[in-house]
Amino acid sequence: MAVILVTGASGLVGGEVVRQLSGGQVPVRALVRDPSRAPQIASLPGVQVVTGDLGRPETLGPALSDVGQAVLISSADASMADVQSSFIDTAAKAGVSHVVKLSGIMPELDSPFRFARMHGEIEDHLAASGMTFTNLRAGEFMQAYFRQVPNIVARHELRLPMAGQRIASIDIADIAAVTVQILLGTGHDNQTYPITGPQALTMAEVAAILSEATGTAIAYVDVPPEAARQAQLKAGMPPYLADALAELFAERRAGKESVVSAVTPALLGRPATSFAEFAARNAAVFRGA
Question: Is 32 helix (H, G, I), strand (E, B) or coil?
Fold first, then answer.
């Protein structure tokens, strides 16, 4: 029987895909670089944890044995394009038939945002691999707002360089649910799907929703882009990533993530999770618990 392999299984999206497959009694193989980071998924029914590195083909033999479908997720860093392209080549040689790639919502090859360009390059590499593919072009994760908890708790502020622009964030649980639908369904070969949440919200609206969920008045503060970058550097973020985030938020301020896609509810057969539902579910987190 062909095996489903999920890469990046110790991360947020990969881990949620593994949990949902396990919950649906679907056997799944979870690829991690460090098994000590994956104790929770290792204990799930039907989950086999294997160790390997996407960018090192010699480590992937056991992981790719008898694999029919693979979910391709890796960290956003300077090596992402090389690492994912290497895995695609290795998977094709191993006989994998279908790859579901977690991509970005705006993967233009000429994008000012470096990771968008990388996603575009990887999508092209996957299309030329001989395997069938499904690209999931996901918008901003709702879980990204967890990074704002320190400011929310200490200052009662949501501090971001977004001006008054809107963004259509998506819950990671919905990304995973779409992935599972594709893995277990039909008709998704060589398709590219933009997936977003159900609303495009301004940061003032996000702050109002978080205020309602937490019972605390939270104000949106529009941070100047360079001030945001300097704060990230001061907090210890590597310059490469700080520069990448500056590029990303410039694209977001230009409206590049403000369009709501109808694909998510169409694939799930239900409405996508709203930010209000997400905030209510995670109210304790946003209170600092």
Answer: strand
pTM over 0.90: yes
pLDDT in tens, 21-40: 999 999 999 999 998 888 88
Residues of the chain with pLDDT under 50: none
Closest CA to 173 of 274, 38, 44: 274
10 Å Cβ neighbour count for 200? 18
Residue whose tokens read 């949440």: 197
> What residue type is 252 in one-letter code?
R
Compute, in degrees rounded to 10, the torsion defined by CA atoms 105, 52, 20, 198.
-10
pLDDT of residue 39: 84
Q: Which residue has the tokens 């990074």?
A: 147
DSSP, residue by residue, 134-173: EEEEE--BGGGGGGGHHHHHHHSEEEES-TT-EE--B-HH
- How crowded is residue 187: how many other Cβ atoms within 10 Å of its Cβ? 6
Map out the domains of the chain with their CATH numbers: 3-138 (3.40.50.720), 198-286 (3.90.25.10)
Q: How many CB atoms lie within 10 A of CB 203?
A: 22
Rounded-to-integer distance, Cα 17 and Cα 273, Å = 16
Question: What does the DSSP 8-state code read for residue 283?
Answer: H
Instruction: State pLDDT tens for residues 134-177.
Output: 999 999 999 999 999 999 999 999 999 999 999 999 999 999 99
Say how many C-beta atoms besides its own lie within 10 A of residue 261's C-beta: 20
Residue 27: how many other CB atoms lie within 10 Å: 13
Amino acid at 203: M
Q: What is the pLDDT of residue 1?
A: 62
Closest Cα to residue 289, out of 143, 142, 160, 146? 146
